[in-house]
Amino acid sequence: MTARNASDALTIGFVFDDTLDVLDGVQQHIVTLGRELAARGHQVHYLVGETHDSPMDNTHSMSTNVEVPFNGNRMRIPLPASRELIRRTLDDTHFDILHVQAPYSPFMAGQVLSLADDDTGVVATYHIASADWASRLGGSLLGAINHHTHRRVDEVIAVSQVAGEYATRTARVRGTVIPNPIDVAHFSQVRAAPQGFPERGNHVVFLGRFVERKGADLLLDAVEYGELHGLFPKDFHVTFAGKGPLLDSCKSRASRLHTPIAFLGYVPEDDKPALLRSADIAVFPATGGESFGIVLLEAIAAGAGVTLAGDNAGYHSTLLGDPDALFSIDEHTHARDLAERISLALTSRQWSHALHERERQLLERYDVRTVADQVERVYAHALAKRRG
């Protein structure tokens, strides 16, 4: 049987051990890509871990999940899924492509791969960058456990060079780098900001989880440094959005500074573009463990004045190493570097305009339409291996 062309309608199953009840990075990836593929005429399904309120049609909840710490964050992993349920799901919908998000658990996604039809193409996308030695060791052990089912994978994708290095180190595989997608049109069509949202005007925004590696404390260090050295205008103000275990300590620390600092808590997905557009400067000071940086592109697409990011490997890759957009995350220099960068962005219209334009030019590279074209070609290669 000859392989289908990339433009032919396929039945695609995204396989993901975690839930679709929340939209973190990997969830955003498969939902954004899935919507675009469905708009192109493909039939898209989601075979996922425990999910009760999915935003997507054709969602199949395959397991019960538990929450564990991993890679400087918390993630939900599946308990052993029913092979009968998996077999029935695969029988009810014959999939042309199963697209598994990696690394994956042997308890759910691994079982799906072991039961996949012989003529189904299997693609794995790697999303992870190691945050510490424990995550690297755990990834290597998981790679060894999944060695048998991973042989069922026909094509490998990594969302960045960093994620590709993780795949090579832990699973001994190499893949094509295809970045995370962003729906540029969606983020560019910003609706009116909800009541109570801050307005632009010397305004800095942080959006992210309040965990150590996301770096909210680094931004507070920069605000404190800027106050001590008179770097910011009088109407300078900062907004933090997100939740997490360090939220209360950040609030306590912010209360001792002179700069007006607001904490919005959780911001719904529909309100994120308006918040990011309100930023003269969107700041993402993550210190590591980042394989990509979707939120950077969301800020750019929403129309933030400029987007500044901690110079970790994932963000460096996403921003193509732009030295103006990236600031030091070294514990001895980050406060001064970020504070001076914020001051420059607020005082030099020429500098901030030039950076804004360079960042806008990145969007075509990461737009979901560009990414989907590349993914469809990988699907065609996977099918050629199975049916050629």
From TrEMBL:
Q: Which GO terms describe its molecular function?
A: hexosyltransferase activity
Q: Where is the Glycosyltransferase subfamily 4-like N-terminal domain?
A: 24-185
EC supergroup of this enzyme: transferase
**Which Gene Ontology BP annotations are present?**
carbohydrate derivative biosynthetic process
Protein keywords: Glycosyltransferase, Transferase
Please report the stretch or stretches of sequence annotated as the Glycosyl transferase family domain.
Answer: 194-360
> One Pfam family name from the record?
Glycos_transf_1
Give the top-rank taxon of the lineage listed in the UniProt record for this protein.
Bacteria
- Reported EC number(s) for this entry are 2.4.1.57
Its protein name is: Phosphatidyl-myo-inositol alpha-mannosyltransferase
